[in-house]
Amino acid sequence: MNLTALTLTQLRDALRAGDTTSVAATEAAIDRITRVDNEIRSFLTLADEIALEQAAAADRRRAQGDDSPLLGVPVAIKDIICNEGIETTAGSRILEGFVPPYDAFVVKRLKQAGAVILGQTNLDEFAMGSSTENSAFFPTRNPWDLQRVPGGSSGGSAAAVAARLAYGALGTDTGGSVRQPAALCGVVGIRPTYGRVSRRGVIAYASSLDQVGVFGRTVADAAAMLQVIAGHDPLDSTSLAAPVPDYEAALTGKVVGLRLGVPREYFGDGIDGEVAAAVEDALARLVELGATVHEISLPHAPYALPAYYLIAPAEASANLARYDGVRFGPRLMGDDVTATLKKTRALFGEEVKRRIMMGTYALSAGYYEAYYGRALKVRTLIQQDFQRAFEHVDVIAAPTSPTTAFRLGERTADPLTMYLSDVLTVPVNLSAACALSIPCGFDSQGLPIGLQLIANTLQEGLILNVAHAYEQTTDWHERAPDLPDTGGGDDSTETE
Ligand code: GLN
Predict the structure, then answer these.
(1) SS3 for 42?
(2) φ, ψ for residue 325, nearest 5 deg
């Protein structure tokens, strides 16, 4: 059996049937990581020994009759999510060597569900970026073309799932960081409703926007992961107490009568023609399945990007004040406290410093109303746009990213061109909606394209079902990037 070729749900079934073991699956994943990830570099920290211990424990649990939902399944975690005992850096020098004393809520949930945690994946520093090039350590490469970026900020998690190095992965989506890398790497990525998943133990970027999401190779895989991490956490005051539906049971594949809204603002300038065409094709497939398409307007969408780039940096400037060299990570000593602070905080990378400066300015006396206050008003207008749209349609469909994966270095010189990568994802973060990205084709260069599906608050099951129905009509999720097939041990590509 080529174990790394299996999807998460296929592996789960094989484990349940006794056709394989968690130790075998974990060894296969680690073996593939050691062969393939030296080029892609999706992992910052590989916790192989601990993972193998967890796998052995999972196999023992199974032998005793345990059938927890992810028992024995190897997954990966974005390195902004605290993993007890494992270095967690947020991709920043300022947290180098930081070993969290506790697990994030989502990590605890994964462990309780029996998942094996392979390690921590690469990201843009503090999740600020759209290409994973802002990682303080190294960039991650796109498995479909190693000269291109995997997207960001959760680029390591998306690349790991696309390259079959992990069966599923966690990311965070503050402005698109799950959906955009999912689109660029050809995998499924869901950003749940704000509050659906606890943020406890997730290193904060912009607290009113941050939300943990999941990556899977298929919609069912993503649903299985979300099932485990969703739910109320009394220790996160923004966590929603709403019950968690059965997301896999929601995957009926039936979309007859579904009203799909297509916002005209999402198909304007700057949207690549091949991306738009693939999204149009996907809509046609959904119509064949019984959905109807309606043109809608989200009139304030054009203001989402500037509003986001005021609100997110403003919150970041407050959240990042805690990195003072006293409580976490390295301390670079100066002659006095101020000098120590200055030296230590110089460990932040360029983009993080830029955001702290922008955010501090937007919040400062005299400018607060003009910038931050105005951005909050825009946020309300955007929320109202979505609410109005959802009076007429069930799901909004659009591209996830204006373009497919861009080349490494192509957008690093000009921060504004990088920010534009998020123009189609940030409106959701400013609203109370949820959204996912699902592969909907490839461009002429063989790069994946993502379809974004957006629904109202807590309608994750709905968008997962629409995505699943669409997925059944395509084979995009069965295509694999051209990488050495090292799964299952019968490796014929090794030449050394
Ligand atoms: N690219 C956006 C930013 O840089 C979104 C990042 C995210 O969702 N974490 O802020």
Answers:
(1) coil
(2) 80, 0
Q: Give the tens place of pLDDT for each residue, 167-214.
A: 999 999 999 999 999 999 999 999 999 999 999 999 999 999 999 999
Does residue 311 fall inside a structural domain?
no
Burial class (CB in 10 A: 0-12, 13-18, 19+), 327: exposed
Number of domains in the chain: 1
3-state secondary structure of 171: strand
Testing ligand 1's pocket by substitution, the residue of 124, 308, 416 carrying the most ligand atoms inside 8 A of its CB is 124
- Ligand 1 pocket test target in 81, 133, 173, 174 with most atoms within 8 Å of CB: 174
Active-site positions?
78, 153, 177
What's the 154 CA to ligand 1 centre distance in angstroms?
A: 9
Q: Could you tell me if residue 15 is inside a domain? A: yes
Q: What is the value of pTM for the model shown?
A: 0.96
In a domain, 417, yes or no: yes
- Position 489 scores a pLDDT of 39
Q: Maximum CA pair distance of the chain?
A: 71
CA neighbor of 164 nearest in space, from 272, 33, 27:
33
Extract the residue ranges of the chain whose pLDDT is less than 70: 485-496
Separation of alpha carbons 316 and 89, rounded Å:
16
pLDDT tens digit sequence for 52-97: 999 999 999 999 999 999 999 999 999 999 999 999 999 999 999 9
**Rounded distance, CA 428 to CA 435, Å?**
7
Three-class SS of residue 179? helix
Domain hosting 87: range is: 3-264+390-478
Burial class (CB in 10 A: 0-12, 13-18, 19+), 97: exposed
pLDDT at 269: 85
Q: What CA–CA distance (Å, rounded) separates 279 from 289?
A: 15
What CATH number is attached to the domain comprising 180?
Answer: 3.90.1300.10
CA-308 nearest atom, ligand 1: 10
- CA 132 to centroid of ligand 1, rounded, Å: 10
Ligand 1 center to residue 185 CA distance, Å? 17
Q: Which of 94, 74, 98 is nearest to 14 (CA)?
A: 74
| Mutational test site, ligand 1, from 79, 122, 128, max ligand atoms within 8 Å of CB | 128
- Alpha carbon distance 390, 329 (integer Å): 45
Distance 480 CA to ligand 1 centre (A): 27
Residues within a 6 A CB radius of ligand 1 = 127-130, 153, 172-177, 205, 312, 422
